[in-house]
Each structure stands twice: as C-alpha cells, then as structure tokens.
UniProtKB/TrEMBL annotation:
<dbReference type="InterPro" id="IPR027417">
    <property type="entry name" value="P-loop_NTPase"/>
</dbReference>
<keyword id="KW-0067">ATP-binding</keyword>
<keyword id="KW-0547">Nucleotide-binding</keyword>
<protein>
    <submittedName>
        <fullName>ABC transporter ATP-binding protein</fullName>
    </submittedName>
</protein>
<feature type="domain" description="ABC transporter">
    <location>
        <begin position="7"/>
        <end position="246"/>
    </location>
</feature>
<dbReference type="InterPro" id="IPR003439">
    <property type="entry name" value="ABC_transporter-like_ATP-bd"/>
</dbReference>
<dbReference type="InterPro" id="IPR003593">
    <property type="entry name" value="AAA+_ATPase"/>
</dbReference>
<dbReference type="GO" id="GO:0005524">
    <property type="term" value="F:ATP binding"/>
</dbReference>
<dbReference type="Pfam" id="PF00005">
    <property type="entry name" value="ABC_tran"/>
</dbReference>
Length: 261
C-alpha cells in the first residue's frame, strides 16, 4: 500500500461569507508519507485540514480521501479511517487514559451510554498505550494528566481504530520544551510502528516538525507558496515569502529552526 494516494486535493477553493479562504490549492498525500502543513496564522491551514479530514466541502475543486470522491460517498464512513489529533480535545468527564483511548473506537468524545469494550478492544487499547509509553498511566484520570501526556493519549486514541491517515492539528500547543520533545519523539516512532499510515501535521513553528517529516506544503493567503519534499520546501526563501518577513531557516540533525534576520 505504500505510495498509494490517500488524500488528493485538485484545485480546491473555499469561500466564507464572500471571502476566498483557499484559492486553487492541489495536494497529493501517499501512504507512508509524513507531510507538514505550514503557514502563518490565517493562511488557510485549518480549512485545508478540514478537507483532508472529510469534514469540510470545498466551494470548487475535487477532493478524494482514501480513493473516495466528495459528493459520492458518505463522509461519516470515511472519517472512521482518519485519525484526528486535536490538543483542544473538549473532554469534560474524568475518564482514565484507557477510557479516552477507547473512545477512538466509538468516534465520540465521551464513553457512549450502553457501550462496553470487548476483550479485544481492551487488549488493543493496552497495546497502543504501551507503544506510546503510557503503560504506567493507563488508570490515570484525564484532568490529572500533563499536556504532554494528554497529547500522547490523543495519538493513541487516534490510532486505535486503525486509521490510514493521521491528522495532527498543532499537537505541540501548550507544551513546554521537554513535553514538546517527548511528543515529537513519540510521533517519530510511528514511522516504525505504523509505517503505512500517512500523516499531516499542521503548525506555524518549524521547531515543532518531527525528524520523520518527508514532505511539506507551505501556504500563505490561501495560495501555495511551495510543495514537495520537505528539504526543497522548507527553505529560507520560501519561508520568508510565506511569512512576508526575512527569516533564516536552518536544518540540523533532522530538525528545522527559524530566526528573523
């Protein structure tokens, strides 16, 4: 399955209240690829992620997710094969780590009434919890977790349903330096534990990109600035253009950094 297109955007546009948010962006993500979606605030990153997550319809253009074209498929069915990691997860209940991970099976925020996990569900949850280094936290309650532990729990929740695509929406939001590095290390390990799962990580901080990033889409004002292999896209010239500011981009040891000139 490696190399099979899992997300295809063809000249998509999106208008909201008469304003063009996305203007003719195309993107193809293949199985096993790890994309960074980069750009300044207001560039249109969240809207694009909505297309990739089978949540938002474009105004014009074509979207295919997992080989299915929008307008010809039930989007709710597609979403079951897409893992979405959102650090602003709106959980209100005091669920344990294991219970939060299990909600990935039901695609709900809380545990549904009259639903109980099977022994197989529990075994799968515990295996993923162990993979993400949370075995000692399985019975810990959500409100007591650090932001870093919550981030890893949400990745486990996204993976339990066996997704073909993983969407990470600014996963380092609210993390201190140590927690961010732990989370990025966790994301990097997915390249070995789930090699066929494609991913798209949204951020506007180059320091938040994992070393396993293979490709990048850099956008500004709803337009594509550059797209392709990450080393070709994440450059001083391209980033300076996208952010409309002179920025020096550096790459060292598999990680990027940026400083204003």
């Amino acid at each position: 399955m490696t190399g099979v297109p899992v997300i295809e955007l063809d000249e998509v546009t999106f208008r909201r209240e008469g304003k063009k948010i996305i203007d003719g962006i195309s993107l193809t993500v293949r199985a096993g690829e790890h994309w960074a979606l980069l750009g300044p605030n207001g560039a249109g990153k969240s809207t694009l992620l909505g297309f990739c997550g089978a949540v938002t319809f474009p105004t014009t253009g074509t979207v295919r997710v997992l080989g299915e074209q929008f307008g010809r498929v039930e989007l709710a069915r597609l979403r079951r094969s897409i893992g979405h990691v959102n650090p602003r997860h709106p959980l209100r209940s005091a669920l344990t780590v294991r219970e939060v991970v299990l909600t990935g099976i039901t695609a709900t925020i809380d545990t549904p009434m009259r639903w109980s996990p099977t022994p197989g569900d529990l075994a799968r949850a515990d295996a993923i919890i162990e993979t993400l280094g949370l075995s000692g936290k399985a019975e810990e309650l959500w409100p007591t977790l650090s932001q870093g532990e919550r981030g890893r729990t949400l990745i486990a929740r996204a993976l339990i349903s066996g997704p073909r695509v993983l969407l990470l929406d600014e996963p380092s939001t609210g993390l201190d330096l140590a927690a961010r590095e732990q989370l990025l290390t966790t994301i990097d390990t997915l390249d070995q534990t789930h090699p066929e799962v494609a991913s798209i990580l949204v951020t506007h901080h180059l320091e938040e990109l994992p070393t396993t990033t293979t490709h990048a889409l850099l956008i500004a004002d709803g337009h594509t600035v550059a797209a392709g292999p990450a080393p070709d896209v994440i450059t001083t010239d391209h980033v300076s253009t996208a952010f409309d500011h002179p920025i020096d981009v550096r790459y060292d040891g598999g990680r990027w950094s940026a400083r204003a000139r």
